[in-house]
Design brief:
The protein is an alpha+beta fold. The chain has 2 domains: 7-70, Arc Repressor Mutant, subunit A (Orthogonal Bundle); 74-121, Penicillinase repressor fold (Orthogonal Bundle), CATH 1.10.4040. The chain is 60% helix and 12% strand.
Length: 124
């Protein structure tokens, strides 16, 4: 798996993923402005450059504008991070992860039934 990414880098990736896997710099900045957090231009450019270096994004030119495209899908990233979590905290046991979620009441009865149906049918 690729390197880890920071929370700020993940925020940028979520914007790209939510925009169909590609976004212009201007779109990314507009979405960041909606968060109410002050994002500096050069901070965002640095974070985008790091994501390119780490292999999470590719960058192309559309005229004079940069378009950033996800090189890793959101589903693939989530799956890799989940596996990393299970390996790191539960010694590879997904059962122990689910047990912890149930014990802490992080899974509702509805969640449990949906997981059970998924397990039985192989569909969400």
């Amino acid at each position: 798996m690729r390197q880890q990414i920071s929370d700020s880098e993940l925020e940028l990736m979520k914007i790209v993923w939510s925009n169909g896997g590609a976004a212009l710099y201007a779109h990314i900045m507009a979405e960041l402005a909606k968060t109410g957090r002050a994002w500096q231009k050069y901070t965002v450019i640095t974070l985008l450059s790091r994501l390119v270096e780490k292999g999470f994004l590719t960058v192309g030119k559309i005229g004079r504008r940069n378009e950033y495209t996800a090189a890793v899908s959101q589903a693939d990233y989530q799956a890799a991070q989940t596996q990393s979590l299970v390996n790191k905290l539960y010694q590879g046991s997904a059962r122990d992860l689910v047990a912890a979620l149930i014990q802490r009441e992080a899974l509702s009865a509805r969640d449990y039934e949906e997981l059970k149906r998924f397990w039985e049918d192989g569909k969400p």
